[in-house]
Amino acid sequence: MIELFAQAAILFATSLGSAVAALLLLSFLPQRRNPASSLSGNIRALEQAVFLFADDELIDSTRSARDLLKAIPGSGTEWQRLHTFLSQRVDGIDDAFASLPDRGEVELESRGEAEIRVSAEWLDGVTRVTITDLSAEGQNVVVDALSHRAERQELEALRETLAAAPMPVWRTTAEGAVNWANPAYLDRITEQRGVEKGGLTWPLPPLFAAATAETHEPRRHKLSTGTGKSMRWYECHSVPAATGTLNFALPADREVRAESSLREFLQTLTKTFAHLPIGLAVFDRKRQLALFNPALVDLTSLGVDFLSARPSLVSFLDRLREARVIPEPKDYHGWRQQMSELEKAAESGLYEDTWTLPSGQTYRVTGRPHPDGAVAFQIEDISSEIALTRHFRSEVALGQSVVDTLREAIAVFSTAGELILSNAAYDRLWGVETGSTLGTPTIADSRRIWQGRSEPTPVWGEIRDFVGAIGERTVWSAEISLAGGALLGCRCVPLAGGATLVGFVRREDDGAGGRPREGGRASVAALDLATL
């Protein structure tokens, strides 16, 4: 019996010693960390944001509430910034806070994806506001420090960028209410309405008309800068977003002023062109009629309706051909080729032509290139000018015919000493062809010819000096001897405008006798001019 108890005691002691030894051994082995316990260090339950306000002054808040106030952009007191944040997310927040002293407690939930609950209590003049994130309520959120830091830095950069943007940027809901705006938008509101930023309430009043649902094309809006102040122009762009619309207002004052100046310039040109007797047709780079004046209608007989429809250059020329305003071509193919060359020549600034019409009118047509590939055509009626030129030419031809019948050799020199008129007797006397001479003969050229066919005499030098003399001049005459011994009477007569007539006549032609005077100037009394 005793042995049984001894064996049992030994067995118990051995088991106990083994257990103790095992526990001691485990205490010295490296421990594996529990993943759950490691994860718990990075897990925190979201804390409710609680604010205590006495009127508009913040008297206390939780850590989460202070972090929320730091994250809300904008200026103003803590109450104004919190009110801005809640107004953008919760409907009816203004009415709820206004009725809080009477109701004692209110509770509202937000709209959209950012689900929050706002609870407000009235505690003897102190307002307690509690904000709860419904999407994370009752959950643990794993926060990656690196990702959180990167997102926070990106958020700060985006906020800084939008805050520094000189253009108004704002977001609107599907109903058109403004639920977010950058400082530039707030500045325009305060400037226009004459209020401080702290006096603004949400939703903000719209500055610009909302974009239509059918289109988001850029649109121009004029915005007043205040009572009695100037107007500013903006070009508004709207982009559909996941929740509402994102809007941008780009300043467009310079563009509007440039367009206004261009319109005024075009109006001035149009008024100027309206009084021009020359027809003007300007075709743009696509060869569509962009501008014309009333003179073009009168000269071409093309209707205003046709020209106002901005026809192409080909259609314009076709209509001119139908109206018989273009010279009738021998064949249509050749005419088409001519019109193609006309356009190419006008592009290089080389086209100029005279159109003689079947009606007897004569048009001068000029093509000139304009910037940006445009081409301008000028059509001028020169019928009277052509008629006057033809009349003048006929008068000159008649006068030349009359002078050619005279027996006296006549040469008329201008003030510059150029030969401007001579007759057939002059050409026969001196053996020249003034009508076919290249260039314009001068008094020096004529003097050399005279000297080559006559005896030496100072008369030629005196004639040269008389032609170039300035001032009062009188008629004089002299006699010279030709190389063959014949006598030649010469006279110099001043004409109007400083011109000089030099006349020559052979003495045998008029039957005069006597020896010639050798050189020198003779008076009019010494020579019987009746015989010349």
Walkthrough of the structure:
This protein is of the alpha+beta class. It is built from 18 helices and 22 strands. The strands form 5 sheets. Strands 3-2-6-5-4 form a 5-stranded antiparallel beta sheet. Strands 9-8-12-11-10 form a 5-stranded antiparallel beta sheet, sandwiched between helices. The protein has a 5-stranded antiparallel beta sheet with strand order 14-13-17-16-15. Helix 16 packs antiparallel against helix 17. The C terminus is likely disordered.
Described by strand count, sense and barrel closure, the largest sheet is: 5 strands, antiparallel
Shape descriptor: rod-shaped
Lateral arrangement of strands in the main beta sheet? 3-2-6-5-4
Average pLDDT over all residues: 78
* Low confidence ranges: 22-46, 511-532
Strand content: 15-25%
Helix content: 25-40%
Query: Rg from C-alpha positions?
Result: 54 Å
In total, the number of strands is: 22
Distance between the termini: 195 Å
Protein name: PAS-domain containing protein
Fold topology:
Blueprint (H helix, E strand, L loop, with lengths): L1 H27 L6 H6 L2 E3 L3 E6 L2 E5 L1 H9 L6 H10 L5 H6 L1 H4 L1 E5 L6 E8 L2 E8 L6 E3 L2 H20 L4 E4 L5 E4 L1 H11 L25 E6 L6 E11 L2 E8 L1 H22 L4 E5 L5 E4 L1 H7 L3 H5 L4 H10 L9 H16 L4 E5 L5 E8 L5 E7 L1 H22 L4 E5 L5 E4 L1 H7 L12 H10 L6 H10 L7 E6 L5 E8 L5 E7 H4 L22
Antiparallel strand pairs: 1-7, 2-3, 2-6, 4-5, 5-6, 8-9, 8-12, 10-11, 11-12, 13-14, 13-17, 15-16, 16-17, 18-19, 18-22, 20-21, 21-22
